[in-house]
Amino acid sequence: MKHLFKGGRRKVAAVMAVALVASLSQVAPSSAAVKPTSGGTLTVGIFDSFPGYCMADNLANSALMAGRTIYETWVEQRADGKVVPYVLSAVENSPDFKSWKLTVRDGVQFHDGTPVNGDALVTNLQALRGALTLLGRAPSPGTAGGFTANIVDVVKVATNTVQVNLYRPQVDFLETLYASGRFFVRAPSQILGGAKCSTTPIGTGPFKLVSTKLNELVVAKNTAYWREDKNGTRLPYLDGITFTFLVETASRVSGLKSKSLDMAMFTSAGEVKQIRDLQQNKSMTVIESPEEYYPSIWLNNRVAPFNNKNARLAFSYAVDRVDYNKVRQRNYTSPAKSIVGPNNIMYNEKGFIQFDLKKAKDAAAAYKAETGKDLEFSFPYTAGSTESLANVTQIQKYMTAAGIKMNLLPLTTAEIIQRAFPQQFQAMALLLMEGTGTAFIAPFITSDTSGGNQTHILRKTPLAVLYGILNLSAFTDTTSDELIWQAKATANAAARKKVYARATELIQSEARLTTITYQKYALAYRSNVKGVGELGLTQGGQRKLMTNFGIDFTGVWKSGK
Amino acid sequence: MRATFFLQRIAQLLIVVFCVTFGCSLLIQLVPVSPAEILLPVGSPEERALLTAEIGLDRGPIGYYVKWLGDFVTGNFGKIYYSGGTEEVSTRLADAFPRSMWLMIYTQILALAIAIPLGVWSAYRVGRRADRVISNTLFATSSIPSFAIALVLVLVIGVRLQWLPTLDYQPYSAGIWEHFKHMIMPVLSLSVGLIASYTRLLRADMIATLREDYITMAASKGLTDRRILWRHAFRPSSITLFTSAALNMGGLIGGAIVIETIFATYGVGFEVFAAINGRQYIALQSLVGLISIFYVLFNMAVDFIAGFVDPRTRDRRVNA
Amino acid sequence: MRRKYTIPTYLAFGWLGVAAFLAVFGSFLPIDSYQTIHGDFIDSPPLTAGHWFGVDSNGYDILSGIINGARLSIFVALVSVGVGGLVGSFLGVTAAYYRGRYDGVVSTFFNVVLSVPNLVLALALVAVLATNVDINQPVPTWRRLATLVIALTVVIVPILGRIARAATLAWSGREFVTAARSMGMRDRQIITRHIVPNVLPSLIAVGFLAIGVVIIAEASLSLLGVGIPDGASWGGMIARGRNDLEYNPHALYFPIVVLAFTVISTNHIGDVLRGGLDRREGRL
Fold first, then answer.
1. Rounded alpha-carbon distances, angstroms, from residue A459 to A157, A450, A463
2. By CA distance, what is B270's nearest residue in A?
3. Where are the alpha helices (DSSP H) in A112-198?
4. Contact A410 C224 (CB under 8 A)
5. Helix, strand or coil for residue C76?
6. Which end of chain A has a smaller Cβ tally under 10 Å, C or N?
7. Using CB atoms, which residue from B37, B86, B158 is nearest to A418?
8. Within the 230-269 window of chain B, which residues sit less than 8 Å (CB to CB) from chain C?
9. ipTM greater than 0.90
10. Are the CB atoms for B92 and B282 separated by under 8 Å?
11. CB C274 within 8 A of CB C204
12. What whole-number distance in Å separates Cα of residue B9 and Cα of residue B4?
């Protein structure tokens, strides 16, 4: 397999083959006209643990997939990227995109039997933006407070209709409301329930909670679920699902092969060999997400050495992205040409600092001339993780070649996350940005997510730190900020893309942060699992077959034993 | 005589548990980062102060310890803190403890069941080929870490032969065979290392016992070798073996983290690991306290039984 | 009872000699640093030119890992067993000789340490001793190494201490000790002249056993992120190769084989040194 990638013509063929596979993998594997059967349970191996289910508990990737069997979102994203109403029935915006009317679907109810209505929507939005926290009625909103800081107020205008007013116009407000699948429809009883918010998820989804702990989530069929399939059969088909946290890749692979697992999820970060192995396995189906996940190297613009532009340039020039992609990613993904990937509206190759060893050395020398110090910085990695160590060692190799000293900091995941958001590291690698739109990108690269709103509810409180906490590079750049807000106010898609492109170019040429390769996710399942990606959305169209949060389990069923 | 012995043991239990838990609380005070900062990454200073007070970390090492101890002895093992609310440590324990308990018991039974015949046999054949083969095989296997053995077992028994499930734990209520099916591989991987050390211990003691006069006398009376080995030599030789087995109880209950992770058994070891990583200090302290209680209890029990088995050995016995 | 040295004994000494040579002179050999990632040779099987033991899935050369890993594996094992053995046997011998309250304190200390799972101990020590307040200031390798050695030493102390104590109990009851005491010999002299020479052989033998135990314990610690930094140890190599078992088993079996050779050799030599003095040996 490796030899395919040597030499010209074969290399082209290989790239084409990969592209073909990638395009095919986005088509749902059809199981012809077999009628789904109800019943059965699935066991799914995942690589993230469950930190909890309250507003501040960020369920990551595969754990988010599990959480989304209990929870749904007000809106859903279609395969083409457009966000459409889901638990909402209708959405209407003012011509200036500053005010949005959201109407809740009739007849949907939470697992505790209470109805989903305008009040529930208001409670959810107020909890997410921290308003209920300030009143002492709900736990911390966590980073969601920063995400939703453009909201000025949330008003119920009819039983099932809520109006959201924004400070800055936002064409893509529904994307913010979606937050890449993270802004759940939580029951007010959970949000306001105090001590059980993190441990007792109550949603509207096809499954409801049986039990949960750090390493496991067990869900069972929600018999009162609101959706049915085209034959009129009530959904979901499955009786239950068990999601098990299996940090060892080998445990997930052997679990699938030994039939202890029906399904398992993988990431391109360090598990490429296993994904390719499973793709060869005839009793397994492997689906892949698009390459819409953009892990960043965040350079801390606030502290030395990366408060100096030459230091940032030196880092960015020094990284050989093509080599890294080959050595660390086995060419499974693509080397970065922008801080986001080609599918994203902000994608722009202009200004992106590419590998150039000579320029890296020059920039490091310029840094020394300016500050009198050799360029040196520290970089954290997950202690005990082979992959993480090899990743940073590879980057360290590029730095050494450019005459830059990179110290490695072995830390636990908890320590890294805890230090990352107060922006304490000099530099770090973390995947935050994703998708085709900017709702899950802009907050990480703007310095004030409230758009400069001086009367915003969190402004005078300690929670005001949330406006800039998501920007791990900790930079303040009013020009790029304004460009992003301007783009968000531009209704015409082509014009919007142009404005975004200018913002991207500016951020890239300042080397605020950089990207080395893109990332994707894969899901492997045994042949008795059917119906993956076949159930459409309520208002027509399909979801993306596979994302970082896996698949939708509503229409999944199990054949035989 | 027996009553004072018993009281002494109880006192020793209390002292050991006190030292372990107090040491643990001193360590917690030494950690440079405040737990509140980690539990509430985006919390306000007031919220953090409130949490620090609730954990008791504002009272200094002694005050903190007294508060924890007061809760612990009344059966309140503390809480695990989330961004939105808390969970009782005892809820987690109720789930995790049986898993570790069975894992430990089966591992010990299996290790002893294999090590005892091997140890007796190699002591009987000391210096001969059988003894050398057993010793070297055991050393070779004991130099493979248990997680490597676990992965090989998974690959061979689980994936290639498909005989056993590779993941998960099932309680007795799910059926005895289901329960055992999920236990076999984790137990095997944990016991390989123990078999080597147990065999070695028993072999050494047996060799010493077999040189004693009363064995020579028994042999001169014409008793069969088998009878001498099992009836006369084994019992007095087994004290160190069982003492050593009792010493391993603590490690097996709280220290099988890697095996628990590979097989998704998720017992107390994983809870301890999670508590350390998540800076859930109250939970950590209660867990470590409980493990040490179990450790000392097991040792007392073994001591007690050993006293009945062979009263002569009480003086010779290594302290436990 | 004095055994003659046999071929296996020479082999064992030979292997340990090689390992010791690698540990001392490994860094002077014309071998790449272990940290080098060989991007063009990822997953190469053994007997690839330039990478005779093959390359693992992260691009680390296995031969270079074995050679460079010898240094830290053996250093950690020798230091923790050496220091642990010294401290443990001092405590054990004095406790058994003087008995009384002092003995109670020492025995309790042994029990305290043994009742805390050693992984927990190591993790706690790393959190406390190998964490900097200024997070961007890397913790020096020697401090992480020292923390690891301390964690492993603390485990060894009660194990060897208990053996020393048991052996001393047996010997201090003997006639010649009583005789020495009645002749007015000082305690210190009795211990150094009569007790230690008799206790030493079994301690040395068990110490050799402990070396293997420590090397393996380090592997488990590596897996949890508290092993030798950057994983340049045999145990660390096994931990790193764990996800490779199905694809690149050579990444696992080379370190396992050298580890097995080392453990068998040390144990064999331990046996030989012990000679006829086969007696109780504690938890190993």
1. 26, 9, 8
2. A215
3. 118-128, 131-134, 144-147, 173-178, 188-191
4. no
5. helix
6. C
7. B37
8. 240, 244, 247-248, 250-251, 253-255, 257-258, 269
9. no
10. no
11. yes
12. 9
For chain B, say whether C105 makes contact (Cβ under 8 Å): no
Does the CB of A45 have a partner CB in chain B at under 8 Å?
yes
Residue A348 confidence (pLDDT) above 80? yes
Residue of chain A nearest C132, judged by CA positions: A409
| Cβ-based neighbour number of residue C7 at 10 Å | 7
Q: Respond yes or no on whether the N-terminal peptide bond of residue B45 is cis (omega within 30° of 0).
A: no
| Ranges of H-type helices in chain B | 2-30, 35-39, 45-55, 60-73, 89-124, 129-142, 146-153, 176-210, 213-220, 225-227, 234-237, 239-254, 257-262, 268-277, 281-309
For residue A382, list its beta bridge partners: A411
Please tell me which residue of chain A has the smallest CA distance to C222: A384
Q: How far apart are CA A434 and CA A269, in angstroms?
A: 15
Cβ of B51: how many Cβ atoms within 10 Å?
A: 18
| Separation between Cα atoms, residue A302 and residue B24, nearest integer Å | 37
Mean pLDDT, rounded, for B191-206 = 85
When the pLDDT of each residue in chain C is averaged and rounded to a whole number, the result is 82
CA distance A461 to chain B (A): 9
**Of the segments A76-80, B65-69, C268-272, which one has the largest average pLDDT value?**
A76-80
B5 touches chain C (CB under 8 A): no
* Interface residue of A252, A378, A382, A389 to substitute, partner C, most C CBs within 10 Å: A389
Give mean pLDDT, residues A279-289: 95
Q: Token pair of A272, please?
A: 């490429």
Percent of chain A residues past pLDDT 90, beyond the cut:
80
The identity of residue A532, as a single letter, is V
Residue C86: which region, alpha, beta or left (left: phi > 0; alpha: psi -120 to 50)? alpha
The residues near B88 (Cβ < 8 Å, ≥ 6 apart) are B77, B78, B79, B80
Q: Where are the domains of chain B?
A: 92-278
The answer to whether C241 and C251 have CB atoms below 8 angstroms apart is: yes
Model pLDDT, residue B131: 86
pLDDT in tens, A370-409: 999 999 999 999 887 888 888 999 999 999 999 999 999 9
pLDDT at A278 over 90: yes
Coil, strand or helix: which one is A251?
helix
Q: C176 is written with which tokens?
A: 């010649």
CB-nearest to B42 from A198, A260, A466 is A466
pLDDT band, residue C260 (cuts 50/70/90): confident
Cβ neighbours around C99 below 10 Å, total: 12
- The size of the A-C interface in CB pairs under 8 A is 79
pLDDT of residue A48: 93
Q: What is the pLDDT of residues B75-108, one digit of tens each?
A: 889 888 888 888 999 999 999 999 999 999 999 9
Nearest alpha carbon to residue A240 among A255, A262, A258: A262
pLDDT in tens, B237-282: 787 788 778 877 777 887 788 899 899 999 998 998 888 878 788 8
Contact, A287 vs A532, CB < 8 A? Answer: yes
Element (DSSP H or E) covering residue C235? helix C234-240
**Residue found under tokens 């990969």:** A18
Residue A239's alpha-carbon distances to A207, A227, A424, C154, in angstroms, are 9, 15, 46, 51
* Tokens found for residue A403: 């005459």
Mean pLDDT of A121-137: 93
Superfamily of domain B92-278: MetI-like (1.10.3720.10)
pTM recorded for the entire structure:
0.90
Taking the C-alpha atoms of residue C163 and residue B117, their distance in angstroms, rounded to an integer, is 24
**Sign, CA torsion C237/C238/C241/C244:** positive
Closest of A422, A423, A421, A444 to residue A432, by C-alpha: A444
Q: How far is CA B90 from CA B66, B72, B82, B86, C98, in A?
A: 20, 11, 16, 12, 43
